[in-house]
TrEMBL record:
<feature type="region of interest" description="Disordered">
    <location>
        <begin position="102"/>
        <end position="141"/>
    </location>
</feature>
<feature type="repeat" description="WD">
    <location>
        <begin position="431"/>
        <end position="472"/>
    </location>
</feature>
<dbReference type="InterPro" id="IPR051362">
    <property type="entry name" value="WD_repeat_creC_regulators"/>
</dbReference>
<dbReference type="GO" id="GO:0045013">
    <property type="term" value="P:carbon catabolite repression of transcription"/>
</dbReference>
<dbReference type="GO" id="GO:0005634">
    <property type="term" value="C:nucleus"/>
</dbReference>
<dbReference type="GO" id="GO:0051286">
    <property type="term" value="C:cell tip"/>
</dbReference>
<feature type="region of interest" description="Disordered">
    <location>
        <begin position="594"/>
        <end position="616"/>
    </location>
</feature>
<dbReference type="InterPro" id="IPR001680">
    <property type="entry name" value="WD40_rpt"/>
</dbReference>
<feature type="region of interest" description="Disordered">
    <location>
        <begin position="158"/>
        <end position="178"/>
    </location>
</feature>
<dbReference type="GO" id="GO:0032153">
    <property type="term" value="C:cell division site"/>
</dbReference>
<keyword id="KW-0853">WD repeat</keyword>
<feature type="region of interest" description="Disordered">
    <location>
        <begin position="519"/>
        <end position="542"/>
    </location>
</feature>
<dbReference type="Pfam" id="PF00400">
    <property type="entry name" value="WD40"/>
</dbReference>
<protein>
    <recommendedName>
        <fullName>Catabolite repression protein creC</fullName>
    </recommendedName>
</protein>
<dbReference type="InterPro" id="IPR036322">
    <property type="entry name" value="WD40_repeat_dom_sf"/>
</dbReference>
<dbReference type="InterPro" id="IPR015943">
    <property type="entry name" value="WD40/YVTN_repeat-like_dom_sf"/>
</dbReference>
<feature type="compositionally biased region" description="Low complexity">
    <location>
        <begin position="169"/>
        <end position="178"/>
    </location>
</feature>
């Protein structure tokens, strides 16, 4: 049954309101006005080659005023229950991914002997971590490859703690003692119970939290769950909302209203998730970070009051495969690595400990800066940050980890895509956008390609290993705000991805070498880029083997006559307001916009022909 109704408030099903803080009027934010929604917009389906996608839910609370400049982001996470939840909602059990995590620290570390759960993971913001018991199939019934094996994702190699063979040569040495990776190896939490937030959000006297509104049936709902459930979290204005996506998404399980700042980004830790425990990090316009567990309504604050960085947070993500580490990007052009179990401490970049790296820091151009700062060893053992990167004097808008969790792709208002080996804290490549700022970035499930979108109204495809631009995708008529690969419709020959933009359009693309329209170019006109330390870039056969030992390669903008272009597979205006994000799951596609609406689109059902051929 299609549910497309709109929720116009939080009365009725939300009966328990807990006022917190001092309630001073000056703490309440006055959000700027926003343009009206396109009148009479009503999109309930769109057609793609594989069938019709239909609108399942349109989640929208009219009483929540949005922060229009930020819009709404969403995270959908599923938990599979082996059995009914017991009354003890505070117990801790090993979570999915623990087995792989033990492999990472297999030498010299003895983890806990408690039983582990090998349930598969379902998170649409990180499709490389998602899997399921079945796959969508193409017209001839062949399953599409949608993810790489668990052993190859999100977890550094187990024996040597060095990046895999596609990053450095097999004979390369382990990371230096000052590298991020060695810090992680010395300070992992496997084999002990990780800390949980301690402060009750319903009883706190902090002026940062105005109130929390909870469903009066929340305890009963949680106790009744015995099979897989899907939790949806999203932000809108000063609110952070939790709903049951599979059950009654119009009836929030809880909603936190903040007084001191607006949530801008959040992420759920899939490694530590469980029937009684969820680790969520939320970034704010004030630079504050809230570590929140909705199942026990407790929280903790990191970078409280912007003590380490008061610039607004633009994106925040857990490090895949780690229980306590996460990275945040800030509007002032910095990125910081935090540990949720460490304390706050005033931090001034450059005044603390600067590690002696194998290569000197880069000072060739302010536009291409990369400055690393760390607290002194005495402070770093107890206090944040773990590491501080200064990448630009303009805002970092988005970042994404590669499927093997060795590299991070970073984009910003300076129009640059940076590929950074975050384990060694070195930049590999710097690419320039065709025009203006970049707003979004995503990796393909196999780690071969990177997508970006921004003010040039284009989606650009970059080849990571070949270190070059592959194609520009033309179809949007305004800024591109979100890109994502569909792992369930990618195979060895064709990659499906989607983009959304401020034109309120969703565009589906099917990328293959044969689908590219190649412009006429003069022989030898392709520019692979220029190394900072040398005019001649290394030969292709040695690029991957020498990545760690070279300065970054800067790739200048190539003209339209030099780059192939890709045409859309499907174009549809799906929202009445500018779109913000697009996310894929096996069963649905999720889109969000600046007004605060979250839409879930049901995938087309497999055709009878597909089912027959798949069973033969």
């Amino acid at each position: 049954m299609v549910d497309t109704s709109t929720s116009h408030g939080v009365s009725g099903f939300l009966t328990r309101r807990h006022s917190t803080g001092d309630g001073n009027a000056q703490n309440n934010l006055v959000l700027p006005s926003y343009p009206p929604t396109t009148p009479e917009h009503d999109c309930r389906h769109f057609n793609a080659p594989e069938g019709t996608y239909t609108l399942g839910h349109s989640i929208f609370v009219n009483s929540m005023q949005p922060l229009y400049s930020v819009g709404t982001t969403a995270t959908l996470v599923s938990i599979k229950y082996k059995e009914a939840i017991s009354n003890n909602l505070q117990r801790y059990e090993p979570q999915p991914g623990a087995r792989s995590f033990r492999r990472m620290f297999g030498n010299g570390h003895t983890p806990s002997t408690s039983n582990t759960d090998s349930d598969e993971e379902h998170v649409f913001r990180t499709p490389s971590l998602s899997s399921s018991s079945s796959s969508h199939k193409n017209n001839i019934g062949t399953p599409l490859s949608h993810s790489i094996p668990e052993e190859q994702i999100a977890i550094p190699q187990s024996d040597t703690l060095t990046p895999p063979h596609n990053a450095v040569s097999p004979g390369s040495a382990s990371p230096t003692p000052t590298s991020t990776l060695s810090f992680l190896a010395r300070n992992h939490t496997i084999g002990r119970h990780p800390r949980k937030p301690k402060t009750s959000i319903t009883k706190t006297n902090s002026s940062f939290v105005q109130r929390i509104i909870t469903n009066d049936q929340l305890a009963k709902i949680l106790m009744a769950r015995t099979s897989e459930d899907t939790n949806l979290f999203y932000n809108c204005g000063t609110s952070f909302v939790w709903v049951d996506a599979a059950g009654h998404p119009k009836e929030p399980l809880s909603r936190i209203v903040f007084a001191g700042a607006c949530p801008t980004s959040h992420d759920v830790n899939v490694l530590t998730r469980g029937a009684d425990h969820l680790d969520i990090i939320i970034g704010f316009t004030s630079g504050d970070i809230v570590w929140f567990d909705p199942l026990c309504n407790k929280y903790g604050r990191i970078n409280k009051g912007g003590v380490m960085n008061s610039s607004p947070i633009t994106m925040i993500k857990w490090l895949q495969g780690y229980e306590n580490l996460f990275m945040a990007a800030f509007q002032d052009g910095t990125m910081m690595l935090f540990d949720k179990e460490k304390e706050d401490e005033v931090f001034h970049p450059g005044d603390g400990h600067r590690p002696t790296l194998s290569k000197p820091p880069i000072h060739y151009d302010e536009k291409h800066m990369f400055k690393i700062s760390k607290p002194s060893p005495k402070i770093s053992s107890k206090c944040n940050p773990v590491s501080h990167w200064k990448l630009s004097n303009q805002s970092i808008t988005a970042f994404a980890f590669s499927p093997d969790c060795q590299h991070v792709a970073i984009v910003g208002h300076d129009g640059l895509l940076r590929i950074v080996n975050f384990l060694h804290e070195t930049i590999h490549d710097i690419y320039e956008a065709y025009y203006g700022a970049l707003f979004c970035v995503a990796w393909s499930p196999d780690g071969r390609y990177v997508l970006t979108g921004g003010q040039d109204d284009l989606v650009t495809i970059w080849a990571f290993r070949e270190q070059r631009i592959i194609a520009r995708c033309q179809g949007h008529h305004s800024w591109v705000t979100g890109v994502a690969f569909d792992p369930w419709r990618c195979d060895e020959k064709v990659y499906r991805f989607a983009s959304v933009g401020e034109d309120a359009k969703l565009i589906l693309w099917d990328f293959s070498v044969n689908a590219l329209h190649r412009p006429k170019t003069k022989p030898g006109s392709r520019n692979r880029g220029t190394s900072v330390s040398s005019v001649n870039a290394p030969p292709p056969s040695s690029i991957l083997a020498t990545m760690q030992d070279r300065r970054p390669t800067v790739h200048p903008v190539q003209s339209k006559t030099e780059v192939a272009f890709l045409q859309p597979t499907m174009v549809k205006t799906i929202h009445g307001d500018p779109c913000v994000g697009v996310y894929f799951r096996e069963d649905v596609v999720v889109t969000t916009d600046k007004r605060g609406r979250v839409s879930t689109w049901q995938r087309p059902s497999p055709t009878p022909t597909t089912s027959v051929s798949s069973s033969s």
